[in-house]
Amino acid sequence: MRDSLRLGTVAGVPVAIHWSVLVIAVLLAWGLADGVLPQTAPGHAAATYWLAGAVGALLLLLSLLAHELAHSVVARRCGVEVEGLTLWLFGGVATLGGESPTPRADFRIAAVGPATSLALGLGFVLMAFGLDGLGAGNVVVSVAVWLGTINLVLGVFNLLPGAPLDGGRILRAVLWKRGGDRDRAAAAATNAGQVVGYALVALGVVSVIAGDSVGGLWMVLIGWFVTAAARAEHDATVSQHVLQGVTVGDVMSSDVRTGSADLSIDAFVHGQVLGGRHSAYPVVGVDGTVVGLVTLAQLRGVPPRERVTRRVREVAVPLAHVATAAPGDPLAELLPRVTAESGRRALVFDGGRLVGIVTPADVSRTLETRQLLGRPEPTGR
Ligand SMILES: [Zn+2]
């Protein structure tokens, strides 16, 4: 995930935090110090509440980390590579480098997360009782109760049966085991995810009407996020299924026209673009190696009077920001890597030599043709 700070490696998994975690940590500490604790444990100084709030927020972030680490560790044990783990606004995301080999592995990787949250929740509640019995201060007991409650809620929330929530992954594993078709199961789980998302939005709206505007709006936001993530995952599942066996070389356009990165934009437009039929051009340095990609939209973005003085290199997307592939690579693996910055285009190299370009039009034409030929879609319905 971009804008993330690398923290280090825990149990062999690279862990990072997104800047939004700082916002959420401050909000959590504030909520505890200013809202929860003065009510549940009255009669203390503000400094005490803030100290307890900070400790509580930190322990909650560590709980989220434990949830994600549990997914990562079990995934690794099941033979699924884990690229890293990032904590952000909505909790954590463990980036898995592959798919579960079996329904059983899929189930175990998904289920261990909510199981960890529920166990932590129970642990904190028991700890609260224990601390209370030992005569610990009411602030400490309140923080433990708060941590227990939130972990229990997180455990239950994540069990909602719709991907991308863990419950959706569990649903996928069960359907996969029963029907024997992973793609169909995944599509059904992401469809369920959209239903869960809409239900959360509806519930949030009802809460707002009933007078709980903060909680309600929060639920609308989460529901909207779940719906969007479920839809994106559904589309990815469908195209991955339809594109099975299709390589980059099958769809690329090999008629690529390159231009010099050191030309002025005006010279480039007159020499290359006018009369051409492409909307993106790989650009090369003096030694002929590809240094980037320029799209018509980027050229158009330069005001006409600057086009004589500015060079193409200044507006082109550097090669490091353009997805690249070899002709033999599976197309489905390339698609998640193309960026909006490069106009969703990818460059194809064979042994260091530029041999083609993949455009959104190439991809959608292939998708439609394959669907036309009747490759069954995993609609899951
Ligand atoms: Zn999880």
UniProtKB/TrEMBL annotation:
Subcellular location: Cell membrane
CDD domains to which the protein is assigned, alphabetical: S2P-M50_SpoIVFB_CBS
Iron found in the keyword field: no
Transmembrane segments: 7-33, 45-67, 109-131, 143-165
Keyword annotations: CBS domain, Cell membrane, Hydrolase, Membrane, Metal-binding, Metalloprotease, Protease, Repeat, Transmembrane, Transmembrane helix, Zinc
GO BP terms, alphabetized: proteolysis
Principal subcellular localization: membrane
Domain (CBS) ranges: 316-377
Obligatory cofactor(s): Zn(2+)
Family in the record: Belongs to the peptidase M50B family.
GO MF entries: metal ion binding; metallopeptidase activity
Note on cofactor: Binds 1 zinc ion per subunit.
Residues the entry annotates as binding Zn(2+): 67, 71, 166
A Pfam family matched in the record: Peptidase_M50
UniProt topology in membrane: Multi-pass membrane protein
Gene Ontology, cellular component aspect: plasma membrane
Active site: 68
Protein name: Zinc metalloprotease
Taxonomic source organism: Nocardioides guangzhouensis
